[in-house]
Design a protein that fits this description.
With 438 residues, the chain is of the alpha/beta class. It has 16 helices and eleven strands.
């Protein structure tokens, strides 16, 4: 060992997972965990459940599974709850989402039926294409936040949870930038009392989570807790946070391919991306305001990876476009199509075509599992504020002010594993070890 390991509190007792948005992603996540608990499925796609981590020199052959290396909560200790604008139980919502086969869902009907959504904080101005009856009412947003805080504490007590984590799986809110109300906690709390229109529903959830000491992850591209007031609250209350926007389909492909092109100094003149999907996410993204929020995260990836300011001859004039089209017959089985125009030696053109017929919620569910387990680990390890080592899971990773986000998925994975090594006092892997030559 190269350093002293961090004191990590044990993962004792139940871990409550609270989810705003009991839709396709959330119910696929819940059903998957319940199926894995019963030995009826495998947690494919989850680093916390399936991945190994190399420790020490290659000659030592120490490669335990991550879940055996760091003290993560056990799946049997997880209990689910959440909020939604619809009154369907998790079982009914999962049946409606049609991601998993009904025969599979029926094997976990009992635990999913027990998850009845609490009334949600909702504002039609932030999500314009859907509406539902299961919505909180109150004189102002401060009252709505207090109702959420009461929900959180009641859930903790009723389910006997020793720890909680909240993960946003709700719809994408319309695009908005930080305003004056987001700059300090004093301004934010005054804004709650005054029903400030710049405070989004997701920010009310984040505020309630952080006030109760609950780690918060943002699985959508919303602004949410990526503002000074809520980041200050996270630090002051010693709460770890991360986000934003699960990196699932098309952007996952970009963060795999773009680093490879850059590593070989191959140029890119254009990258056109289009998607068709028919789930609730696709319907919400039909609204230009919500699409703008998603577009911002999707477009930012290539600039950060390719660094056109450093390599203007290769990437300065790239044409990058992203389109999303709602197509109901496709359901959750999203198709992401990319046309990439590249050039090589002496500027000679070439092309790459990608047609990724993916299942959005199937890709997102293991990310949600890893994030809640790692956030719980972070809190038990005394970590607070932005957890940049969890950038691996997001399209638009949050960073400390003044830092640009790292989008290269291979660098992100190295940072994640090195953070785990550091927690346990193991040497970091830098690939600069002694090499032998003939």
């Amino acid at each position: 060992m190269s350093s002293t390991s961090t004191q990590i509190a044990p993962a004792e007792g139940k871990l409550g997972i609270l989810i705003p948005g009991i839709g396709a992603v959330a119910t696929t996540f819940m059903a998957g965990v319940e199926l894995v608990k019963r030995g009826l499925g495998e947690p494919v796609g989850s680093l916390t459940q399936m991945a190994t981590i190399r420790l020490g020199k290659r000659t030592e052959n120490r490669t335990p599974k991550i879940k055996d290396f760091v003290p993560l909560a056990k799946l049997d200790d997880i209990v689910f709850g959440g909020w939604d604008i619809y009154e369907d139980t998790a079982y009914q919502a999962a049946t409606h989402a049609r991601v998993l086969e009904q025969t599979m869902l029926d094997q976990v009907k009992a635990p999913l039926s027990a998850v009845k959504p609490m009334k949600a904080v909702f504002d039609q101005e932030y999500v314009k294409r859907i509406n539902g009856p299961n919505v909180k009412t109150g004189p102002n947003k401060r009252d709505l936040a207090e109702q959420l805080i009461a929900d959180i504490e009641n859930f903790r007590k009723t389910n006997g949870c020793s720890r909680l984590v909240m993960i946003w799986c709700g719809s994408t809110e319309v695009f908005h930038r930080p305003a004056a109300v987001h700059q300090s906690m004093e301004a934010f709390e005054k804004g709650l009392e005054n029903n400030d229109p710049d405070i989004a529903p997701s920010q009310v959830y984040a505020y309630a989570a952080l006030k109760t000491g609950t780690p918060f992850a943002n699985g959508a591209p919303n602004l949410t807790h990526d503002v000074p007031a809520l980041l200050d609250l996270a630090r002051d209350n010693n709460v770890p946070v991360c986000g934003k926007d699960f990196k699932t389909g098309q952007t996952f492909m970009k963060t795999l391919l773009a680093p490879g092109l850059k590593s070989r100094m191959l140029g890119v003149s254009g990258w056109f991306s289009t998607n068709i999907l028919g789930n609730r996410d696709g319907e919400v993204l039909e609204d230009p305001g919500s699409f703008k929020t998603k577009e911002e995260t999707k477009l930012s990836v290539l600039d950060e990876i390719l660094q056109p300011n450093l390599y203007p001859a290769l990437y300065k004039d790239i044409y990058h476009a992203v389109r999303i089209n709602y197509y109901p017959p496709r359901g959750d089985s999203k198709e992401g199509w990319d046309n990439i125009d590249i050039f090589g030696w002496l500027g000679y053109p070439m092309q790459i075509k990608i047609d990724f017929l993916c299942r959005d919620s199937i890709l997102a569910a293991p990310l949600a599992l890893d994030l809640v387990l790692f956030l719980d680990l972070a809190q038990r390890s005394g970590m607070r504020g932005i957890q940049e080592w969890l950038s691996f899971y997001f399209k638009a990773p949050m960073t400390a002010p003044g830092l640009y986000p790292e989008h290269d998925i291979f660098i992100q994975l190295m940072k994640l594993k090195n953070r785990l090594r550091h927690l346990k006092g193991e040497g970091l892997i830098t690939h600069l070890g002694l090499e032998y030559y003939d």
